[in-house]
Amino acid sequence: MVWKKSDDQPNSYPEPAPAAPRPMSSTPTTTSSTQPEPRRSSERATIGASIIIKGDLSGGEDLVIEGRVDGKVDLKQHNVTVGPSGRVKADIFGKVITIEGEVDGNVFAQEQAILRQAGAIRGNITAPRVVLEDGSRFKGSIDMEIREAGSSKHESSRPERERPQPVEAGRSQAGEPAGASRAAQAG
Amino acid sequence: MSWFLRSRKETAPVATQVEPGPDVHRSLGLNALLESMRRKGQGLRILDLGPAVGSNVEFLSQLGCKLHIGDLYASRSTAVEGEELGQEFFEQLFPNDARFDVVLAWDLFNYLQRKEMVRLGSLIRRHCRPGALVFALMSIQKQIPAQPIRFRMLEGGQLAYERRSGLERPGPRYAPAEITNFLKGFQVDRSFLLRHGIQEYLLIREDEEEETRVM
Fold first, then answer.
1. β-strand B150-154 against B100-106: which pairing, if any?
2. What is d(CA A57, CA A69) in angstroms, rounded to the nearest whole number?
């Protein structure tokens, strides 16, 4: 398995930062678990375009996937980016999740999920904030509610005052219509 | 992951060419829909049969809605050209056991044949709660864009029409009676004929009791 530290990341990745080269920590075949030392948030690992991983991934740093992963990606406290050549066939858990490649699975982001123009997701997105760029392809459900700790009540991700105020129904408004009607209620 | 590949295909154009580009129109149907949604409160489940449009997603999420994107047209482009869409095709647009309060059909009904409309209509009925609303834009023009329009909700109850190409094809010009026939269990709550040849429909799902009495 080849993991490499990235030092030339595109600007679109969340929190881009140079990473000092260092040996990669990895476990055989399927799972990468980096437990012991606390990592700087600027560090991130990259799965190269030619790499195929079958199995779950977890770790303690940000991750860029340019290759193919068939297994759960569990980096709840870190950012996950599926690059333009990246393909993930499983659920992804992360803090900020950016998709520029293809994901066939559910996306669970603690802070934000971003589907870039070239990206595609077939699955559900759960995140307090979701950004879908024009041209992106998405099929599934979007859940932007946040659950309060210790409470079963769901609340919207935005305060009441920010919610859009629908304008009044147009029946009484002058405008563009050539005709309007309200069907009689069937008895 | 064939969906990823197939959804990039486009169907062949049919007829004349006009200038593509976004038009902005005041949508009385959308205004009526939003007002109904506001009355119903938060937590509504919405099925959007159109493609995922970022600004629409943001707008609807601000209303406290849960959204499911079906993207019928992208799925349709995966089907064999000219082949009638079967029951299985339409079933995959709906999540299992989900019941919706609002269905955004946009102009997609214009691109389905009668038999396909019946299949989709029965599924919409099955997956809608009583009182659910269907928002549909039917063209009364002889020619319609070759591909469904991408609609973007704007401030002030306006809709931006974003045509994907300048090509056109003949439109089905379904009559109002046909639409309620396709969507059995629904009745027209409001309809608005707009100057640019679009009839906006807001259809409402009757409650079960009413439905069985009529049948």
1. unpaired
2. 9
| Chosen from A132, A147, A160 to mutate, greatest number of chain B CBs within 10 A | A132
Which of A142, A143, A156, A163 to mutate against chain B (most B CBs within 10 Å)? A142
CA-based torsion, A60, A65, A69, A74: positive or negative:
positive
**Cβ within 8 Å, pair A132-B57:** yes
Range of the domain at B177: 40-214
ipTM summary value: 0.79
The structure tokens listed for B116 are: 């396909």
* Inter-residue contact A47 to A66 (CB < 8 Å): yes
Work out how many domains chain B is built from and give that number. Answer: 1
Reading chain B (215 residues) residue by residue, the pLDDT tens digits are 455 654 444 444 344 555 555 689 999 999 999 999 999 988 899 999 999 999 899 888 888 888 999 999 887 766 666 678 888 899 999 998 899 999 999 999 999 999 999 999 999 999 999 999 999 999 999 999 999 999 999 988 899 999 988 899 999 999 999 999 999 999 999 999 998 899 999 999 987 665 555 55
CATH number at B181 reads 3.40.50.150
The reply to whether B77 falls in a domain is yes
Residue B52 included in any domain: yes
Would you say residue B26 lies in a domain?
A: no
Q: State the pTM of this model.
A: 0.75
Say if B70 is an interface residue toward chain A (CB within 8 Å).
yes
Cβ <8 Å between A173 and B28: yes
